[in-house]
C-alpha cells in the first residue's frame, strides 16, 4: 500500500513539474515575443513553412469533407422537405466546428510533428546549446518566430478549409443532386451570421493555433536529445495536441452558446 501511494505521489510530482516547465516556457515565449516580432521576416518564413506547405492536405481534406456534408445533409433534410437548406447546413458545420477542429488536427499531424522533430534534432545536435554559448537566446531566435508563425497560419488554413468545403458542398448539391443554386446560396447567406458563427470559428482557430504550436514546441524543446527521444516527442505532439483540441472545442462551444 505504501509503495502504491509512493508511485502515485511520484507520478503527480512529475506531472506538476512538467506543467510548471511548460508554464515557464509559455511565459518566456510571451516575454520574448516583442523582440521576435520586431524581426518579422523570421515569423513570415515560419508562416510560409507551416502554412503554405500544409495547403495541399488542408484543401483536399476540406473538399472531401464538403462532399460528405452535402450528401449526408441532403439525405437527412429531404425527409422534412428542406433539401434547399443543405447549403446552410454545410456552411454552419464548417465555420462553427469542422473547419477549425479538423484543420487543427491536420495541422498537428503535419506542421506540429515537423516543429517537434526540427526542434528536437536541433537539441540533439547541440545547436541550441551552441546558441546559448554565443549569447543567442534560443527561445527568442528559434521558438518565438515559430510560435507566432503557427498562431498566424492556423486561422488562415481554417478559412481555406471552410471555403473549399463550401465549394465542395456546392459541387455535390447543385450539379450532382440538382438543388437550385440560388436556394443553396440564399439559404446560406440568410442563416450564417458573421459575428455569431464566423467569429466564433475564428476564435476557435486562434486558440487551437496557440495550443497546437505550443505543444509541438514544448515537446521538441523538452525531449531527450536522442533519436528515440525525438521519436517519442513527435508521437506525444500528435496525441496531446489532438486531445487538447477536442477538449478545448467542447469548452469553447459550451461558453459561446451559453452567452
Overview of the molecule:
It contains 9 helices and no strands. With 259 residues, it is mainly α. The chain has one domain (2-258). Helix 4 packs parallel to helix 8 (194-222). The model has no long low-confidence stretch (mean pLDDT 87).
How is the topology of this model organized?
Blueprint: H1 2-38, H2 40-51, H3 55-77, H4 86-124, H5 127-133, H6 138-177, H7 181-191, H8 194-222, H9 227-258
Membrane topology: Multi-pass membrane protein
Subcellular location: Cell inner membrane
Family: Belongs to the MlaE permease family.
Descriptive key words:
single chain; 259 residues; mainly alpha; 9 helices
The main sheet comes to:
none
User: Total domains, how many?
Assistant: 1
Number of strands: 0
Please compute the radius of gyration using only Cα atoms.
22 Å
How far the N terminus sits from the C terminus, by CA atoms, comes to 47 Å
Number of helices: 9
Strand content: under 5%
- List low-confidence stretches: none
What structural category do the secondary elements indicate?
A: mainly alpha
- Give me the strand/helix succession: HHHHHHHHH
Percentage of residues in helical conformation? over 70%
**Which outline best applies?**
elongated
Average of the residue pLDDT scores: 87
